Protein 1
Amino acid sequence: MVLFSFSVFFQKYSHIHKEKTTLKEVPHRALECMKENLTMEDKDWGCCPKNWTSFGSNCYFISVESGTWDESEKKCSSVKTHLLVITTKAEQDFIIQKLDENNAYYVGLSDLQGKNNWQWVDQTPYNESATFWHSGEPNDLSEHCVILHFRASPRKWGWNDVRCNQHQKFICKMMKIYL
């Protein structure tokens, strides 16, 4: 697949611009677009912000900086995204291939009331049968936020509940922009 910078793509296909509102609504300075086979009429290009990773119909940003859970969600929100919401095993498997085993990453799952009522930041229903908790997790009623974390034994990525004021890296997720 050939990647195009958005500026070159925009010049070549300027008629598409009329279908969209304005680029001011896109908080990213550059997009990378790939030709895709889509069922959406006349929407053949799936775009992610430059330096984000594409999977399915979504784009992912893996941070190199750390922050608390709230700071991490605010950083994602500042570019019109949210912390990662994991909905399938395929998505979890894709993401963990991109991560550094020496770091942990905040995802968009929390229990801010401390009542074991886990909720995703985008209001996606929490499905207990589609979770990827490490064995024995969640395990502490004072830990209200979730990280994606690698355990050396049994050499596996999974979810772990932690205190929300810990500084961790984070992952943002957004829907692709289709042109």
Note: Residues 1-26 have pLDDT under 50 and may be disordered.
Protein 2
Amino acid sequence: MTVERNPAPVAPSPVCAGTPHHGGATDGKLILALPKGRILKSAKPLLARAGIVPSSDCLDESSRRLRFDTNNPDLDVVRVRSFDVATFVAQGGAQLGICGADVMMEFDYPELYAPLDLGIGGCRVSVASPDGDDDAHDWSRHSCIRVATKYPNITRRHFAERGINADIVHLHGAMELAPMLGLSRLIVDLVDTGSTLRANGLHEVETIMQITSRLVVNRTALKTRPKEIAALIARFRDALLPVAA
């Protein structure tokens, strides 16, 4: 006798609330994501030349607000951590942003298009070691080396190109403490003047990449709102032109 069995029920595909969209905020405005801190201060004159003036408390570090209107009725800006700009734009929370090349390389989002190097926020991502560690730069001596960094992907790629496995200690700050407390042999961090390294008994061994900030755009938003976004890109491009004497 053949026993017929009911087929196992097929589980429905999960529906995720809050799926990203790319057209803009629910009020129809475009959103430009700006990084907190020194890059925001450097960006202020560039924004002004592009005809974008955020409300006055945007540059006030003590302000608890994160979204600000501008002198353009169809454009708002949001102020986020520099490491989060790429994610906000890639996921469609903002359609444009000002983002460091280090963040772009670390996350490598395919959803991002970077039409302009804005030439602000100049610094570098470097390998640093404790003073007195004279063989830290001799990569041929090591098959594996422990490195503290907030850039795990950049760091792994850099050392892999030299045939070295980087054992990552993933930190979000105070990287300079890692070697002196025995967490790592080296660090990979963002360096401007190098004064913080020197104050903590470290020195640069190698520069991985030079950094400037870029204008980044969500690729889907560029397709769905091409005129508005192309106009903003053009304004930033014009703002980069030399000022006539």
Note: The longest strand covers residues 202-211.
Protein 3
Amino acid sequence: VVNDDPGLAGRQVLARLSGAPSFHEIATLPSTDGIAAFIDSGRALMAVHIERDFTRNLLAGRPGPMQIIIDGRNSNTATIALNYANDIVLAFEADWVAEHGIPPTLATLVPRAWYNPDLLSRWFVVPGIVGLLTFVVTILVSGLSVVRERESGTYDQLLVSPYRPWEILLGKAIPGFIIGGGEATLIIAAAVLWFRVPFTGSPLALALGLALFLISAIGIGLIISALAATQQQGLLGAFLFIVPAILLSGFATPIANMPEAVQYLTLLNPMRYLMVILRGAFLEGDGIRQLANQYWPLAGLGLASMIIAAWLVRRRMY
């Protein structure tokens, strides 16, 4: 909240917004300069700025605009928040007119959506679909790789081959990396050229994030494949992981709205970090420096999953 109006109207409308069950006041700022830090970090969805002459304009029968700055990265949530705020301001205006006995005035919202000016839902959904489809295909390709060999009988040939376990693991990981990376590239091209979603960030930053994510997804898929005895088990195991991973990724529901225990659980989900990287690269213009906090968890998950997969493959070989 930024309130530059010393009058009664500014305090009253802010009290109504803060007291509404749909909103929670995070901070009161002395100027609009501090708004960007809260919106960019995701700590606040919306900022309200009451201009200096808000009360004076309403008492004089002139329009009293108040600016609403909203995070447009989640267009659905932003639209709902704007509708709630508009209803509250309309109710305030009706009570203000009745209380002061003056002609109806216009206490109007002037919305400004950052990162998605028109609040187009496809700007929010399509980058997430890039991660979703890449994740599903990569998990399925790698999740059926080892078990397919075992079921067809060719796995025994690997046992007597001169290849080391890590070499076999690398051979199973490379196809998933190529297929997942190729699919991600095609979907990103379709997002930009077909769906007209702006890509404002660094291609290198996105490529690095996708590479780390693919390593994590391949490691998880190889773990599933090493544990499964048949392709049906591998397919079932893959979907048992895919569905909750998507639900807990922030693809449709903001992670901040989940229970606290579930939020901690999402830290083990590589999809969570990819969603931030994709939307940051597409909508926020982020580069490697801004996305560094998403890289190292992905790298850790990738390393851990590949080590576990290598141990399981080696255990099945001897």
Note: The chain has 13 helices and four strands.
